[in-house]
Backbone:
């Protein structure tokens, strides 16, 4: 703040400078500033605000006291004011890589949707208005679930920086009971499943456009596997003698699914080495984010190819669909798998829960209405009562 004239107040360390352009209450507006020394005894000036914005000498004094308390606790106000989101993300990714965590999708989301706004911004400068504006911008082009993943990643990165004492302030991405900032609300309970004809038509369309995407879809339809689980399968995970496919599920747990011979033969036809991923990233999945080292193993890290959406559009499966829960996307294969099992009447809810690998039965209950028999039984009971209105019934 060299060259500026500061006028001392009656409070220690509190000064002000007068504006040459603005007035307040008929006098030149005052910008209050404070002066303090850090732990290394180096002096610093800090602007607090203008009198026209409600700032007073006593308020500036209180802010100076807060700075001195932070310094006494071993925190650095300067670091808090200059520590950027980009620095937090870099530190978190370095730690995650050392821990063997898969962060390819997080890197891609950051590069595509977050870097431009947040990379050079000090964490301490982020407020709810900025977050609300940015959230609205993302929700216009991304699903609520994807937007939630974006902010959850930033929240983890800043919490990591706080834990490592890189940043001494609060986490602006955190959500509390009384916080004005709210994460996007996500409704994941998709209800759409395909008819046999729709499934056959979509598989045929995908076979024309991308044989690999066709095979991934067929695998999901026949086993109920999630896309991220399919991306994880390596040559060594396909075990035809046991009739199973191994993969890493949620929570980094190793799990397996039973598969029919035709599905196992389909995977083996790729002739991958034991350490190679069965399904590998195609050219149209090499996006602008460039973690080159992370792509050497060929693993798909950017999600399902846009070819899937184009195939769905070509068949008109999402025409006039306005409810997000009814939209056909890759996860619809998994819904279709469970729905067809339920409709067959050959599986109980608990059996479907095990096949879907749900953590709780409540997740499986969305398919309960598809199991035949229950509603028909209730209909027949009501019909019997209505057909004999004069018969006494227990109340």
Residues:
């Amino acid at each position: 703040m060299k060259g500026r004239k500061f006028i001392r107040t009656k409070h220690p360390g509190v000064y002000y400078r007068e504006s040459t352009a603005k007035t307040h209450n008929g006098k030149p507006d005052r910008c209050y500033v404070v002066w303090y020394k850090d732990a290394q005894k180096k002096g610093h000036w800090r602007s607090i605000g203008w009198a026209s914005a409600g700032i007073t000498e006593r308020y500036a004094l209180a802010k100076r006291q807060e700075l001195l308390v932070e310094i006494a606790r071993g925190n650095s106000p300067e670091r808090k004011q200059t520590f950027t989101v980009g620095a937090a993300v870099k530190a978190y990714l370095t730690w995650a890589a050392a821990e063997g965590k898969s962060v390819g999708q997080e890197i891609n989301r950051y590069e595509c949707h977050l870097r431009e706004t947040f990379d050079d911004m000090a964490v301490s400068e982020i407020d709810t208005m900025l977050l609300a504006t940015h959230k609205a911008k993302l929700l216009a082009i991304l699903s609520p679930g994807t937007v939630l993943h974006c902010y959850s990643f930033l929240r983890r990165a800043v919490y990591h920086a706080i834990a490592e004492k890189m940043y001494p302030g609060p986490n602006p991405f955190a959500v509390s009971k009384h916080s004005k900032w709210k994460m996007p609300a996500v409704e994941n309970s998709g209800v759409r499943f395909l008819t046999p004809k729709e499934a056959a038509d979509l598989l045929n369309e995908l076979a024309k456009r991308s044989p690999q995407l066709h095979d991934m879809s067929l695998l999901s339809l026949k086993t109920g596997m999630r896309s991220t689980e399919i991306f994880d399968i390596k040559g060594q995970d396909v075990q035809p003698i046991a009739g199973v496919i191994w993969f890493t599920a949620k929570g980094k747990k190793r799990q397996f699914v039973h598969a029919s011979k035709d599905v196992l033969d389909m995977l083996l036809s790729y002739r991958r080495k034991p350490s190679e991923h069965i399904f590998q990233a195609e050219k149209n999945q090499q996006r602008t984010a460039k973690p080159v080292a992370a792509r050497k193993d060929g693993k798909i890290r950017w999600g399902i190819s846009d070819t899937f959406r184009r195939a769905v559009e070509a068949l008109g499966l999402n025409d006039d669909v306005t409810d997000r829960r009814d939209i056909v996307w890759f996860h619809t294969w998994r819904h279709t798998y469970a729905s067809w099992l339920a409709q067959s009447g050959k599986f109980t809810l608990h059996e479907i829960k095990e096949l879907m690998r749900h953590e709780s039965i409540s997740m499986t209950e969305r398919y309960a209405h598809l199991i035949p028999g229950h509603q028909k039984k209730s209909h027949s009971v009501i019909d019997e009562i209505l057909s004999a209105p004069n018969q006494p019934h227990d109340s």
In short: The radius of gyration is 30 Å.
